[in-house]
Design brief:
By secondary structure, the protein is of the alpha/beta class. The protein contains 6 helices and 7 strands. The protein has one domain (3-159): 3-Layer(aba) Sandwich (Uracil-DNA Glycosylase, subunit E), CATH 3.40.470.10. Helices cover 33% and strands 19% of the residues. Strands 3-2-6-7 form a 4-stranded parallel β-sheet. A 3-stranded antiparallel β-sheet has the order 1-4-5, with helices on one face. It starts with a strand and ends in a 5-residue tail after the last helix.
Length: 160
Amino acid sequence: MSVIQHPFPPLCDAHSEILILGSFPSVKSREQQFFYGHPQNRFWRVTAALFGAEVPVSIEEKRAFLLQNHIALWDVIASCEITGSSDSSIRNVVPNDLTPIFETAQIRQVYVNGGTAAKYYDKYQKPVLGREAVRLPSTSPANAAWNLDRLIAAWSIIRK
C-alpha cells in the first residue's frame, strides 16, 4: 500500500456558508479530479433534491450548482494509505488544513459525509478549529442500509 495525496483542491468561494467534508476521494473521484465521481454515489442526487435542482452531470455543472447554493466541498484527509476506495482500509492519515476555507468564507455550519469523515474530523480538525461538525449518513453506495429517500430526509438539515 502506498501513500496517496489528495489530487484536487477544495471547492469554495467567499459566499460559501455550508462546508461538507468527505473522508478521501474514491478511485473514480481521483480519476475525474472532482468530488463524488462514482456514478453510484448518491451525493449529487441527494443535494439536487434538497435544492429542487436538476442533478448536475458535468464537473462545470456540479461546481456551479454548489457555488450557487453556497456550499463548499472538501475532504478531511490530505493524504493516506488506502486500498481502492475502501474507507475501512485508510491508514497513516495526514489531515487537510481547513483554515484557508474559514479565512475565505463565512462558514456557518460544517457537515461530514459519513462515519469515516466524522471520525477523522473529530480527531484532527475539531481540536484545531474548535467547531462541531454535524454527521450525515454517507451517500456512498457502501451505505446500502440507507435508500435515497432516507438520505434526502436526513440531509434536509442542511437547508435549515
